[in-house]
Known about the structure:
Blueprint lengths: L5 H15 L13 H7 L5 H10 L1 E3 L8 H7 L14 H8 L4 E7 L10 E2 L5 E2 L4 E7 L9 E3 L3 H9 L4 H4 L8 E3 L5 H18 L4 E5 L7 H16 L5 E5 H7 L9 E4 L1 H14 L7 E5 L5 E5 L5 H4 L9 H13 L3 H17 L24 H11 L1
Parallel strand pairs: 1-12, 5-10, 8-9, 8-10
Antiparallel strand pairs: 2-5, 2-11, 3-4, 6-7, 11-12
Bound molecules: 1,4-dihydronicotinamide adenine dinucleotide (NAI) and magnesium ion (MG).
The site of magnesium ion has 2 residues, from helix 11.
Amino acid sequence: MPGDGIGKVVLQEAIRVLDAAGFEANYVNGDIGWDFWCKEGNPLPDRTLKLLQEHKIGLFGAITSKPKEEAANELDPSLKDKGFTYSSPIVGLRQYFNLDICVRPCKSYKGNPLNFIRRGADGGVEEPMVDVVIFRQNTEGLYGGVEWSNPPDQVYEALRTHKKFVQNFGNVPKEEISVSTRIFTKKATERILRAAFEYAQKYGYKSVTLCEKPNVIRETSGMMYRMAKEIQKKDFPQIPLYNTNIDAQMMWLTKNPEEYGIIVAGNMFGDIASDGFAGLIGGLGFACSAQFSADGIGVFEPTHGSAPKYADFPVSIVNPMAMIESAVMMLEYLGEYEIATRIRKAIAAVIAEGKVKTYDMMKMTGKPDVIDRGAASTHQMADAVIAKL
Ligand code: NAI
Ligand code: MG
């Protein structure tokens, strides 16, 4: 599912790397994204859902999302005023297949000029090696979509009549209220917690940190913390469980990022924590992710979007590493450990050598002239990885 903009470019490069590493697969193209919204009024056509249902494993590039009015304007004239409304196909995909486990590794590569550095106690410069994997609940919580402006009567009544809520909201007119709920279910919470502990066990991470806010958000974060303690005690007593608050975690991010292993959180806080840690290891050019469902459907994608600014450059300049790393996560999911390890080592070798770097790694502003100024193109970066395999 290449999608839009640079999604198309980076996916193609990742597949070249997979081929060169000897991964044998047939790739079936899945239509998704802006073109299909404009032409068909649906950015996530049913035929794509059927394909993924049948084949189970998806590589996804990125899509373009635009605000409501713009989306309506770009719709094919024959489809206008027919009741089509745009919604993000990647969010749609997550919801349709219940891809409730999202995994976002943030691991520094030695020699990456974008690695985080800090001042040490002696005044010198330290470059802590980060190796954190964030487990984010992907379908519920604040992104679960249960929200209203000018809420229905039942919701309004609950605010107006509950003795705890009435003080703040009892006298506010209905039209002046917007509500976004944060619903956690035990089933989904248990799944993300267990996934985090199982991963820690399998790959030898020293600890699991729950990153929520149970002292304030008592019901949802509180439930997650209680369940985490129970699961740890019963099934993973050898793996220590730590509890941090999301706000404090963001502060500690630059203080001691090397001390964390697995981090597990709900949807919103998992999103925040993963962007925070991704910033320490090189940012969007390096941030990869995997998401999967209980029935084994897996979709692997870079965290970045379609970067429309760069999509039409004569030679693509964006960093393909996030997409290549996402493809490596797919290999691990499929149990293709040998090929996965070989590609990881090749990436590490390219970065350690430091000869081939995309514009972001050279801290340049993304313009077509970066190629003339010595930055590698997307294609050359993938070539460099292939050469090291
Ligand atoms: P973006 O991630 O597309 O780009 C933001 C900036 O990050 C770029 O301008 C570029 O400077 C840098 N960047 C992104 N990917 C890079 C790469 N591989 N190598 C080097 N630099 C890179 O986010 P933006 O601009 O906020 O959104 C653009 C479009 O993408 C929007 O339509 C948005 O809705 C969509 N989007 C889609 C996502 C998805 O498909 N999962 C996620 C995020 C945004
Ligand atoms: Mg995000």
